[in-house]
Amino acid sequence: MSMIERVKEKARADRKTIVFPEGIEERTIQAAAELVKEKLVDPVLLGKPEEIRGEAKRLGVDLTGIRIEDPADSDRFRTYADSLYELRKAKGVTPEKAEELTLDPMYYGIMMVKMGDADGLVSGAVHTTGDMLRPALQIIRTKPGMKIVSSSFLMDCPDKSLGEDGLLVYADCVVMPSPTEEELAYIAVAAADTARTLCGIEEPRVAMLSFSTKGSAKHESVSKMQRAVEIAHKIAPDLLLDGEMQFDAALVPEIGASKAKGSPVAGRANVLIFPDLQAGNIGYKITQRIGGAECFAVLQGLQKPCNDLSRGCSVEDIVNTAAMTAVQAQS
Ligand SMILES: CC(C)(COP(=O)(O)OP(=O)(O)OC[C@H]1O[C@@H](n2cnc3c(N)ncnc32)[C@H](O)[C@@H]1OP(=O)(O)O)[C@@H](O)C(=O)NCCC(=O)NCCS
């Protein structure tokens, strides 16, 4: 069974409510119907009911089992606007601004998750990553003990000798453009958690990547990865984590054994931490396009799960992301 099939089975076993702020969007409506059909999550579409129904009719989609909620006509509006004001008044948000924001389906959806009226949120078919991330960061905030929000890409590779039966977790490929060494350490700890929760990897083995292995090259960027390793060991002393190391030393047993002798991770890593967003984003696309891996993106470190789609996403991508969000909400 593939990783995503296992995720779907878990989602089905304990159904969660997932809100979609882009409720009027064509692929989102189709995905909501598919989620109901496959009994994966209970979807809530945000928007004007008559517009959503009109669009569903045009698409030939049956909306049975899908809840539709209009922020402007909701009995939760007042509570959300007041709470949003309380949460953000120190940052200059006035009661009027809070009302204006609550009318925005993105903020309304985030407030539903914050207030426990939904278990998670999925958006991004229309909005940019930043459009969703900013309110999520401002309102939902990070989990206790986690300093930052970042992302993992779950890479399901055709070569099953890699990582954990072909599964590799890459981080961070979406959020933090230039992480500090402390932020890299938190990204590593969060990615190991994602490996456990979503990939069912019982023993995450985390490699901190570089162009150097165990001091083979000297450069400030190498020293930064070495310091990140030290910090990660302090944050999560029981986690199998090592570095700095090159990509091949992390993945290929013979190279790991010769370049990083005695490392508990080298040659058998299943979680790979890239030094910055440029490397991570390029790395996952190479693995996907040249390596033929299927890839699935999730945000990690938020108190409650919110996930971003690519604007070029398919209906299937939305269904998969909703199932992953539900599984994150279960834990
Ligand atoms: C994540 C991102 C949207 C944050 O944007 P930003 O301009 O730094 O946002 P702000 O500085 O206004 O921060 C908003 C709030 O989130 C917090 N925050 C920012 N980044 C955070 C992070 N990674 N984790 C936790 N909190 C964070 C800030 O502290 C701030 O909180 P406050 O308003 O309570 O003080 C930005 O880093 C970004 O655009 N990243 C790249 C995303 C991207 O384009 N990826 C493309 C790859 S597909």
Quick recap:
By secondary structure, the protein is of the alpha/beta class. The chain has two domains: about 5-140 and about 305-330, Rossmann fold, CATH 3.40.50; about 150-295, Rossmann fold.
Q: What would your notes on this structure say?
A:
46% of the residues lie in helices and 16% in strands. The chain is globular. The chain folds into 2 domains: 3-141 and 303-330, 3-Layer(aba) Sandwich (Rossmann fold); 150-295, Rossmann fold. It is of the alpha/beta class. The protein has a 6-stranded mixed beta sheet, with helices on both faces. The protein has a 5-stranded parallel beta sheet with strand order 3-2-1-4-11, sandwiched between helices.
Pick out its properties:
331 residues, 13 helices, alpha/beta, globular, six-stranded mixed beta sheet, Rossmann fold, single chain, binds coenzyme A
CATH topology of the largest domain: Rossmann fold
What Rg, in angstroms, do the CA atoms define? 21 Å
Indicate the mean pLDDT: 97
Q: Helix proportion of residues, in percent?
A: 40-55%
Number of strands: 11
What's the tally of helices? 13
For the record, the CATH class of the largest domain is Alpha Beta
Q: Number of domains in the coordinates?
A: 2
Main pleated sheet: 6 strands, mixed
- What is the 3D form? globular
Class computed from helices, strands and strand pairing: alpha/beta
Name the poorly predicted regions.
none
Give the percentage of residues in beta strands: 15-25%
The helix/strand series, from N terminus to C terminus, equals: HEHEHEHHHEHEEHEHEHHEHEEH
What is the rounded distance between the termini? 21 Å
Record the strand order, biggest sheet.
8-7-9-6-5-10
Bound molecules: coenzyme A
